[in-house]
Design a protein that fits this description.
single chain; mainly alpha; Rossmann fold; Tyrosyl-Transfer RNA Synthetase; 2 domains; 3-stranded parallel beta sheet; two-stranded parallel sheet; binds adenosine-5'-diphosphate; binds tryptophan
Length: 327
């Protein structure tokens, strides 16, 4: 029988704040599914978070908490390779080598850099080189598929560009990866209707107290359409609730929006209960992990060891191809 080779799937998440529904639907839940059939590489991008988070205590605790969130939600360290970015220092070496093949013109077109500056974040070299570090994260592991939300599409294009340039210069050395962006979850709206993001203060966190969770859900923006008039479905409340519903349930919700008597307050309460239903069962596991840091560190150490081994192999190929390994 011909055995098909498993695809290598990789993605990372920045520990820049509490993880939220956008992260879950855009990336985390899809990664957790991938681990069943593919070779999954998953990491916490603490070097990336450092570009916008200069507080050492917060960076450290966010990194630990993000790891606990992922594990609690079902990421299985036996089936995948799970680590913290800075535990595989090879990534910074590849970053430097790729930087020599990333044109300044390419870097200048990065919209996420421009957005961050526009939001008042002080420009620093780390922020500017962010896409190069991300390319190194991906290329260092011969990744083929990268599940992300739509906001990361350009970073994936830049990664492909760097890999192709590198290969054109030195011969086929790096695998050119493909993004995996899913239409229904590519852009989860925040409670204000903008993209849900840790940096916009508009998130619905995955794990918070019931009270804070309810408060955030009750703050989702709605309009003033009369109770008996049809309601707009292209709105954050409708989109957010739909993420939790199957096709039939979505149709039923759409009918309610089109009919009379729908109260947004009722829909928000239902969404609140749904979020508790879905994420409630993971809370205990998360609390367990948080109170057992030794166990979490062991998992991450084992993951880093596995990741370093792959990284070292790929990097040796890159060192030889580029002449860094001298003779
Ligand atoms: P944030 O914008 O909250 O800081 P990250 O940049 O750390 O989130 O994103 C981690 C992953 O989650 C990425 O793959 C990103 O594309 C995805 N993601 C983040 N926000 C959303 C969203 N609102 N909708 C869909 N995917 C998202
Ligand atoms: N930049 C990504 C984000 O903000 C996080 C990230 C870092 C990443 N390195 C990566 C995602 C490599 C995919 C692959 O979401």
């Amino acid at each position: 029988m011909h055995l098909e080779k498993k695809l290598r799937v990789l993605s990372g998440i920045q520990p820049s704040g509490a993880l939220h529904l956008g992260n879950y639907f855009g990336m985390m839940s899809r990664m957790i599914k991938y681990q069943e059939e593919n070779e999954l590489f998953c990491f916490i991008a603490n070097y990336h978070a450092m570009t916008t988070l200069p507080d050492s205590k917060t960076l450290s605790s966010n990194t630990f908490n993000a790891a606990c969130d992922f594990l609690a939600l079902g990421l299985d360290p036996e089936k995948s390779t799970f680590w913290v970015q800075s535990d595989v220092p090879q990534v910074t070496e590849l970053t430097w080598m790729l930087a020599s093949h990333a044109s300044v013109g390419l870097m200048d077109r990065a919209t996420s850099y421009k957005d961050k500056i526009a939001r008042g974040i002080k420009p620093n070299m780390g922020l500017y080189a962010y896409p190069v570090l991300m390319a190194a994260d991906i290329l260092l592991f011969d990744s083929q598929i990268v599940p992300v939300g739509k906001d990361q599409k350009q970073h994936l294009e830049m990664t492909r560009d760097m890999a192709i340039r590198f290969n054109n210069t030195y011969g086929e050395t790096l695998i050119v990866p493909k993004p995996d962006i899913e239409k229904t979850t590519q852009l989860v709206p925040g409670i204000d209707g903008q993209k849900m993001s840790k940096s916009y203060n508009n998130t619905i966190p995955l794990f918070d107290t019931d009270k804070k969770l309810r408060k955030q859900i009750m703050r989702i923006v709605t309009d003033t359409t009369d109770i008996d008039d049809p309601k707009d479905k292209d709105t954050p409340l409708f989109h957010l609730y739909s993420l939790f519903l199957d096709e039939r349930e979505q149709k039923r919700l759409a009918d309610r929006y089109e009919g009379k008597g729908l109260r947004y307050g009722d829909v928000k309460q239902e969404l609140y209960e749904k979020v508790l239903d879905v994420f409630g069962p993971f809370r205990e596991k998360r609390e367990d992990l948080i109170s057992n840091p030794k166990q979490v560190h062991e998992i991450l150490d084992t993951g880093a060891k596995k990741a370093r081994q792959v990284a070292e192999e790929v990097l040796n190929r890159v060192r030889s191809a580029s002449g860094v390994n001298y003779s």
